[in-house]
Amino acid sequence: MAFLPAARQPGPRLWAAAVAVVVVVAHVPAFFHRLLDGDEAIYGSIAALMSLGGRLYAEGGVDNKPPGIFWVYAATFHVTGTYQMTAIHLVGLIVMLATCSLLFVIGRSLYGVRAGLLAALIYGILTAAGNPRLLASNTEIFMMLPLTASFLLMLRRQWLWSGALLVAAGAFRQVAAVNLLLVPLAIVLMEPPPKRLRAFALFAGGLAGALLLAAALLAATGSLIGFWDWTIQTLYGYAALNWTPALVWMRAQDSVVPFVLSAVVVWVAAISFAWRWKRLPPAAQLIVAWLAVSIPGSLAGGHLSWHYFIQVMGPLALLAAFAIDRALDTSRRRWVTAVAIAGLALPMAGWGVFDLVADPLTYDFRAPVPAHEAVAAYIRAHTRPEDRVFVWGDWPALYLESDRIMASRFPGFLRGFARGSALPPNNWDTSAAVWPALQADLMLHPPALIVDTAAPANWSDFSMYPMSNYPVLAQFVAARYHVIATLDGVAIYAPNGS
Q1: Which residues, listed in sequence order, are joined to residue 411 by a DSSP beta bridge?
Q2: pTM higher than the cut 0.90
Q3: Tens of pLDDT along 403-449?
Q4: Cα 346 versus chain centre, distance
């Protein structure tokens, strides 16, 4: 908006429309693939079970994520049809655009319309400029909408609703809770001393009320006990398994390093602005603090997937926007404009091409690629729509790609685990509680096909965990099934006598 003389500048609405178009174009690759991530397959396969009346965290599907993402997927499938992933991607896009709008409001309130539009633009591009997993309709993209709204209400000193919306954010991902660390600082910065105790009480009231409402919803759907067992009690073990130096470094090279490099211009701008902490107004200081708590929040699980950093992208976009906005009013504005455009456009274009041509589930852009589409086609051709299927390994995508329902409540195994490492496979989804539930599921819904992605296929580094290592599963298969086909090393079992 400062790129042209004042008399020739387009109006704010035209700029807003241009920002929206750029952001939507950046996210277009999401609509060229049915699935963008194995996590989408987990949420989708569980939502499909829920649509049949199953209780979440029980026979309706088990995962260690809070319920929000499953409720969104199930509601979308209820309206558009089971496994309609284009609709899911559209919902994700709408939520991302809504978050852009909130960031615009925050930016405009502090430094004007241009700063707000820059914040919306930067967030929209950051959430697209990465591997396909970043584009997925994942927990983080949904978490950021209520999390950003909660932060906006902190700035507006609406403490009751800020607390309630923080719980809403936590309904999608537990690490939203790190924003609790902002509350004391926010109240000190935004409220005069006589009103601080009341602000604390209002925020606590909103937090408590929303927690009670969430508990009531879980209880009403029969999911409260399962929620505690699978999403609260498993947290420490899940994080501890991921926090080994070799594993953290390996994942950092695949995610942290490319994220920082792809957004280096944004990081430099944000840090340069944050460096002036003492001279910033209280609201801007609070945004710096938001970025500071978001970084450990995104790293807390130790898994370090790229989409975890969406939690960082909101405050990062705001601070970078403020820095660029200020620089555009200096004599260096042409140089700043060129660097900013290059720093945003080049990663967006490069990753956009990659996301269009790469296999979104493996990130391979040249052969050989695991033949998951061929295996899914075989499943679809050799089963009826009402049949159920069981996949051994960590490939829930086969359920969606074949349009078949899971025979068990577990969409995958050793999820988030360092598969192929020397660590014993004592993951939360291979604990002692898993096997009786799995056996009951398979007896109640005998699968029409059992698909083994372990050995020799080694999909998702699963060859070290053959079914023979797990007696409950091994005995069930040996007594009732036989190999009927092998595709790309994947063994497919059919019931005896068929």
Answers
A1: none
A2: yes
A3: 999 999 999 999 888 888 878 888 889 999 999 999 999 999 999 99
A4: 24
